[in-house]
């Protein structure tokens, strides 16, 4: 007779499945396990939904345990089939689809649901929460049809939703009931700094606003506030909090309050039924952070596996987050009160704020903004209750109170960190777990630790601390870090993929994936565009560009704007145009009612607000080549007037710029490429912050490379000085082809030069025969490229992609 017990898990989320993982490790054959999930997906990382919405991650990328994991571990799973009834007498559950499953032990892990404010109109179409993959899909679909989004709630969830909607091209306003953002996690100065940062990214805010009504007939049209002001909105996202899912528990006779009431060992009031995760309430607290839920899961797993455990005593929580690219941290009692003292520093220039709250000589709370590297050590002091009298400035500033010397070393900080410190908040991995992986399981690289413990496997924010702990535990035995693949679909890096394509003569994206054994047969949004580029770079005369492997901008050869329209930038060589061209552009703009015509920073005209169905007609009537203002290609060659008109000019920068741009027209690259030619060292064309800048000096030209004028400004470095125009062309074309052949996909020249070093590039291009061979390969490639606008104009099949009924596409970033 079998002694295997039956274990049923109600809920397929993070806390419940983490509990199952522990049980499988502690007692692999003790239970026959059945899992019921409300969503039709395998176990995934809900924390990463904001990254999916923002477009940086696919749904496949956030899956923690795929379908093969269930099969490999003998776990029976019923996705998309929630439990609707529990018979606690017969010890049986019944699912929505009529599945009956008996149990010896039952784990309630039903999680929580988004709280929808009980406002008039809250049931209208277009009003949703932000809690699961379906919500993400709803927002993505709405962004293809609607323009104005309102997010109610200025906490973390609301800001994550707003960031994602902004990336999807929507006009986003965040409404918050209080006076500053994230007031449950940040104090006023940090909240104001965050608001300034997010406003620069394009978010709008209405603070101290109370929503009174959601208006509209069938679908939401606007929000009306208690002060009677109105905000138009086509989509309303409620992000005002979560509520534990306890309806099933209540109907089954379990004691509930805010959540399902449990003791220190996660027992409910009914024998054989436990609860864990966001649906559970322990000592009056229902936790919404992953670390406490994983701690609960470990206690429950040990009890069910028959292992010794001290029980769960509750958690002191901290929050370390990256909000729309900004690092923030808070822990404990971070707001001031009459019985506390604070020490703080605020640097508005660099966007850094640090605050410690002290009570009776002990650290009781902290807030960090912009620089959160000290978060773990501050949290340790809060939990330990250690007296820090006299050391406050040393702890906050990293400088001893005496004013000289340095703070504790990395090794000392790692040694002082308690074993139960949560290092990876996304996956609840402690310092002790990482130490065990290094000391007892042979994990001597960050990659091995990631595979063994999942630390740094999600958002990656904890990777620096994981690296420090690896060095602390392994010492001289730290292994050589294995190369990470270009994405989660493969372990091959860029250089290995390029080498395999050349060696084996692989000619299509699908062929590369099949031959090189992609884990995901269809690839993902990271690898498909990169493979498409590498294949085109290696086989320029044979490879047929795969449209399906590109983002929206490159599929439609126009830049999608926040309102869903597109911009058209025709090629204007060297920034020099003619009255006839200007008349042509003006005529088209008037005929198609283009809302705005603007000069770009690269001396071109941008027609903004064009409807997608009008793109081919506008291109046809302009009868000008594409300016590739949307693509990973040559964008512009900016010029000054040089010695043609300027009294300071030493060379003909206009003629040189036009010559370079006409030669490099239609050149695709790993990332966008911008050039400039300045006719004298006064550098009016800003050549020294371009990917390649040509600067005229008396009797010669300087070539500067690796510059960037974007978010991360980088001054270009001097590659060479040449005397003739022909040499300028030779070095320019050779340099750009060398970049094309050796950079990673989506890697700008500035990042590439920083990675490989200018000396490496100089050495590679020193031999003239090498340069000429590079120029020849570039010419071959350019000889087989066509103007995409002209190609679409002449191909009726391609033109059909621009009809109003064509499908929604992912927005490019």
Question: How would you summarize this macromolecular structure in one to three sentences?
Answer:
With 813 residues, the chain is an alpha/beta fold. The chain is built from 27 helices and 38 strands.
SSE map:
Blueprint lengths: L4 E6 L3 H13 L4 E6 L6 E2 L4 H6 L8 E3 L1 H6 L3 E3 L4 E5 L4 E4 L4 E3 L2 E4 L3 E3 L12 E3 L3 H13 L2 E5 L3 H12 L3 E6 L11 H13 L3 E4 L3 E5 L6 E4 L4 E3 L2 E4 L3 E3 L2 H5 L8 E3 L10 E3 L4 E3 L7 H16 L12 E6 L2 E7 L8 E7 L4 E8 L2 E8 L5 H10 L7 H6 L12 H7 L5 E3 L4 E2 H10 L5 H8 L9 H12 L19 H11 L4 H7 L11 H12 L13 H5 L2 E2 L5 E3 L10 H13 L4 E4 L5 E6 L4 H8 L11 E6 L13 H12 L8 E6 L13 E6 L2 E6 L11 E6 L2 H18 L6 H8 L1 H8 L2 H16 L4 H7 L1 H4 L14
Parallel strand pairs: 1-2, 1-9, 2-5, 9-21, 11-18, 12-13, 12-18, 13-14, 20-22, 34-35, 35-36
Antiparallel strand pairs: 3-4, 6-7, 7-8, 10-19, 15-16, 16-17, 23-24, 24-27, 25-26, 26-27, 28-29, 30-31, 31-33, 32-33, 36-37, 37-38
Q: Give me the side-by-side strand order of the main sheet.
A: 5-2-1-9-21
Structure class: alpha/beta
Identify low-pLDDT runs: 400-406, 805-813
Largest sheet: 5 strands, parallel
- CA-based shape: globular
Number of helices: 27
Query: CATH superfamily of the domain at 5-111 and 245-305, called what?
Result: FAD/NAD(P)-binding domain
- From the 3D coordinates, which CATH architecture of the domain at 5-111 and 245-305 would you assign? 3-Layer(bba) Sandwich
Provide the gyration radius in Å.
30 Å
From the 3D structure, determine the CATH topology of the domain at 5-111 and 245-305. FAD/NAD(P)-binding domain
The CATH class of the domain at 5-111 and 245-305, by name, is Alpha Beta
Q: What is the beta-strand fraction?
A: 15-25%
Question: What does the average pLDDT come to?
Answer: 88
User: What's the count of strands?
Assistant: 38
Instruction: Provide the helix percentage.
Output: 25-40%
Query: How far apart, in Å, are the first and last alpha carbons?
Result: 60 Å
């Amino acid at each position: 007779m079998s002694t295997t017990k039956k274990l049923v898990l109600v809920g397929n989320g993070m806390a419940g499945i983490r509990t199952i993982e522990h049980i499988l490790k502690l007692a692999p054959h003790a239970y026959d396990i059945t899992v019921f999930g409300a969503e039709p997906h395998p176990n995934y990382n809900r924390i990463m939904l904001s990254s999916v919405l923002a477009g940086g991650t696919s749904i496949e990328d956030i899956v923690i345990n795929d379908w093969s994991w269930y099969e490999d571990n003998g776990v029976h799973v019923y996705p998309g089939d929630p439990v609707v009834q529990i018979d606690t007498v017969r010890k049986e559950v019944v699912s929505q689809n009529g599945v009956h499953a008996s149990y010896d032990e039952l784990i309630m892990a039903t999680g929580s649901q988004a709280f929808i404010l009980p406002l008039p109109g809250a049931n209208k179409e277009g009003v949703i929460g932000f809690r699961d993959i379906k919500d993400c899909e709803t927002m993505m679909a709405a962004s293809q049809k609607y323009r104005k989004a309102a997010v109610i709630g200025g906490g973390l969830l609301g800001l994550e939703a707003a960031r994602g909607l902004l990336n999807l091209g929507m006009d986003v306003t965040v409404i918050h009931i209080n006076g500053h953002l994230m007031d449950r996690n940040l104090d006023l100065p940090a909240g104001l700094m965050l608001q300034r940062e997010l406003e620069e990214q394009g978010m709008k805010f209405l603070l101290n606003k109370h929503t009174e009504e959601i208006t509209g007939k069938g679908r939401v049209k606007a929000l009306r506030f208690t002060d009677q002001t109105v905000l138009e909105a086509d989509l309303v996202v409620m992000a005002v909090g979560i509520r534990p899912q306890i309806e099933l528990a209540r109907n089954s006779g379990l004691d509930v309050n805010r959540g399902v009431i449990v003791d220190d060992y996660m027992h409910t009031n009914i024998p054989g039924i436990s609860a864990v995760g966001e649906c559970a309430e322990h000592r009056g607290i229902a936790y919404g952070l992953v670390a406490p839920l994983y701690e609960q899961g470990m206690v429950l797993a040990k009890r069910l596996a028959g292992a010794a455990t001290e029980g769960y005593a509750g958690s002191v929580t901290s929050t370390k987050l990256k909000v729309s690219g900004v690092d923030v941290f808070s822990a404990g009692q971070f707001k001031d009160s009459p019985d506390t003292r604070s020490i703080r520093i605020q640097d508005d220039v660099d966007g850094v704020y640090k605050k410690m709250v002290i009570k009776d000589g002990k650290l009781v709370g902290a807030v960090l903004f912009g620089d959160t590297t000290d978060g773990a050590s501050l949290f340790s002091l809060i939990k330990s209750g250690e007296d820090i009298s006299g050391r406050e400035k040393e702890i906050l500033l990293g400088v001893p109170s005496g004013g000289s010397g340095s703070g504790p070393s990395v090794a000392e900080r790692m040694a002082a960190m308690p074993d139960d410190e949560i290092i990876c908040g996304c996956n609840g991995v402690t310092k002790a777990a990482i130490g065990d992986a290094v000391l007892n399981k042979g994990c001597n690289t960050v990659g091995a630790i990631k595979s063994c413990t999942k630390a740094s496997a999600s958002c990656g924010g904890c990777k620096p601390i994981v690296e420090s702990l690896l060095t602390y535990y392994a010492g001289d035995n730290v292994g050589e870090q294995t190369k990470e693949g270009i994405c989660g679909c493969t372990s091959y890096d860029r250089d290995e993929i390029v080498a395999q394509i050349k060696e084996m003569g692989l000619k299509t994206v699908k062929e590369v994936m099949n031959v090189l054994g992609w884990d995901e047969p269809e690839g993902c949004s990271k690898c498909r565009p990169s493979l498409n580029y590498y294949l085109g770079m290696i086989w320029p005369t044979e490879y047929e560009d795969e449209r399906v492997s590109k983002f929206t901008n490159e599929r439609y050869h126009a830049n999608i704007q926040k309102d869903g329209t597109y911009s058209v930038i025709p090629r204007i060589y060297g920034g020099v145009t003619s009255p006839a061209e200007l008349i042509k552009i003006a005529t088209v703009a008037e005929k198609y009612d283009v809302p705005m015509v603007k000069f770009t920073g690269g001396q071109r005209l941008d027609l903004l607000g064009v409807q997608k169905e009008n793109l081919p007609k506008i291109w046809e009537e302009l009868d000008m080549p594409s300016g590739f203002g949307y693509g990973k290609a040559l964008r512009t060659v900016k010029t000054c007037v040089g010695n043609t008109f300027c009294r300071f000019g030493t060379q003909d920068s206009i003629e040189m710029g036009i010559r370079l741009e006409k030669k490099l027209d239609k050149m695709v690259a790993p990332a966008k490429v911008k050039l400039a030619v300045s006719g004298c060292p006064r550098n009016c064309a800003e050549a020294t912050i371009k990917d390649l800048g040509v600067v005229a000096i008396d009797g010669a030209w300087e070539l500067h490379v690796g510059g960037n004028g974007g978010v991360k400004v980088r001054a270009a470095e001097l590659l060479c000085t040449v005397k003739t125009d022909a040499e300028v062309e030779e070095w320019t074309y050779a340099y750009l082809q060398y970049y094309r052949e050796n950079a990673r996909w989506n890697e700008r020249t500035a990042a590439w030069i920083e990675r490989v070093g200018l000396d490496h590039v100089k050495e590679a291009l020193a031999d003239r025969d090498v340069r000429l061979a590079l120029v020849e390969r570039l010419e071959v490639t350019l000889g087989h490229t066509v103007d995409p606008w002209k190609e679409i104009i002449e191909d009726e099949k391609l033109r059909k992609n621009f009809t109003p009924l064509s499908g929604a596409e992912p927005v490019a970033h």
